[in-house]
Amino acid sequence: MDMLVISGFLGSGKTTLILSTVGKLIETTKKKVVIIVNDFGQIGIDGKVMEKYGLAVTEMPSGCICCTLGSDFLETVRTVDSKFKPDLIIVEPTGIADPANILDTMKLYHGPIGTIRILVVVDSVRFPLIMKALAKPLRNQLNAANAIIINKVDEASPQAVKEVKDSLEQMGIKCPVVTTSATAGINLEDAVKVMVSP
Description:
- The chain is an alpha/beta fold and 198 residues long.
- Helix content is 38%, strand content 21%.
- The chain has helices spanning 14-29, 73-84, 99-106, 127-133, 135-144, 158-170, 188-196, and strands at 2-7, 33-37, 49-50, 57-59, 65-68, 88-92, 116-123, 147-151, 177-179.
- It has a nine-stranded mixed sheet with strand order 3-4-5-2-6-1-7-8-9, with helices on both faces.
- It is globular, with a radius of gyration of 16 Å.
């Protein structure tokens, strides 16, 4: 079982990105996917909600399953693994969370775990503001990333997107960077590629 942590600040478009790409991700990889989110009420998923095992669970039309992130993350992962036997768990933590903490927590997990990848979503419009107000948490997220998605490029000028890329380069970020708009469906194939890259 692999894990993909999709991190980013509130409003960066994490949930929209997940919902826009999960069908293509499943189609591309042929994997059984479970999504663990921090706040289930914030995502628009149709289907029957079950509360067995203390998890709110909904099957999505694309064939994956969503669960709320319980207070004990490891127990949530254990329950998801035993109940659904996924090939891939996508985790969407709170916006300010340091994804490195999830890596540290998973070191305590004794179940089957393969690759853990961290994808950080940044808002191309609000990036300069977040960089000023929350520089340390943002740097923590970016430094932990295996890939970065600059989202909402349809709402930003080409110059603003270039400035985000330049800022990442100045910070010494070496991981792949992809530009997308999850809402407008721009470059979603590239987003899926960095989600599944080894």
